[in-house]
Amino acid sequence: MRSVIVLLSLAGLSHTLASAADRTAYVAQIGDANQARIVQVASNGTASISQSGDRNAARIEQLEGRDVTATIRQSGDDNSGEAGQRASLASLVIEQSGNRNAAIVDQQGTVHQAALTQQGNDNRIALSQTGADNQATLAQNGDGNAMDVAQTGGGARLDWTQNGSNLAMSVMQSGGTPLQIVQTR
Hints:
Order of helices and strands: EHEEEEEEEEEEEEEEE
Structural class: mainly beta
Distance between the termini: 40 Å
Helix content: under 10%
Largest sheet: 8 strands, parallel
Strand order of the largest sheet: 1-3-5-7-9-11-13-15
Shape: flat
């Protein structure tokens, strides 16, 4: 069974078809029992979801807008990628390869950016960004890793990489402090 829900709401019905094209949404699924959902109530929109194996689930929402953008690509089986956004300038990328990986992102406010990459199996990332102008680049390579990140305030920068297996840590970042973390095992 394949399930796809794509909802696009265009602000102002007086827009022509040419201006509506700025609010792209794209879903491509191969494999069985995949689920995808895109909801945009957007300014310039874009979204995307691309899944490959079986039983993957993805969700992009965005709601209210300005520039936004989002992308979730997954490969393998039983992966879950979710995003929220609530916009302004936003932006987001989630890429996962392997099996049973999960990424959950909630961005609110103004000018947030996030890039998440997971390679391996049974990895988990949870990212919450509130405030203004926070950025996170998170990468996991291995199996059984976990990252929990909360960025509040404004101007926080986080670049975090985990290489190895069974690594786990939580980071709470408040304010404009740049932070770089590399964990290996």
